[in-house]
Specification:
64% helix, mainly alpha, Substrate Binding Domain Of Dnak, Chain:A, Domain 2
Length: 147
């Protein structure tokens, strides 16, 4: 802790403030940690709700339930003061979101393969010649006449 500038406080007052700050340092650290855990949990809740909302039409009810159940548990934990319970519920939801995201990725890969295009976005059966289709390309130079 730093006390600077001109102060009308006496040395005894300043020393008392430093002692109070040292006495409450552990309590302040605990509050900071609690705030961080709650922020992480709120972020996970937002991410899960957004993912469910965005993918509502593309996933099965079982896949939705695999995220909705831990989401509800985390929301319930956030209503209380059990920081360890909030951490555990956040980890459970994070794992469920990762599994859900993996299923979405696999489904997208299947859809991409089913339409016949590769991961690079080229149509299947496209020629391998890098200059194919370049017959209309014209080499040009831009000249600035205003100089």
């Amino acid at each position: 802790m730093t006390i600077s500038g001109q102060s009308t406080l006496s040395k005894e007052d300043i020393q008392q403030m430093v002692k109070d700050a040292e006495a409450h340092a552990e309590e302040d650290k605990q509050r900071r940690d609690e705030a961080e855990v709650r922020n992480n949990a709120d972020s996970a809740v937002y991410q899960a709700e957004k993912m469910l909302r965005d993918q509502a039409d593309t996933v099965s009810d079982d896949d939705k339930a695999s995220v909705e159940t831990p989401l509800a548990a985390l929301k319930s934990a956030l209503g209380g003061n059990d920081i360890a319970g909030i951490k555990e519920a956040t980890a459970t939801l994070t794992n469920a979101l990762q599994a859900f995201g993996q299923k979405l990725y696999e489904a997208a890969a299947r859809d991409t393969n089913a339409t016949g295009s590769s991961a690079s976005g080229q149509e299947s059966g496209a020629p391998n010649d890098p200059n194919a289709g370049d017959s209309e390309i014209v080499d040009a130079e831009i000249v600035d006449d205003e100089k």
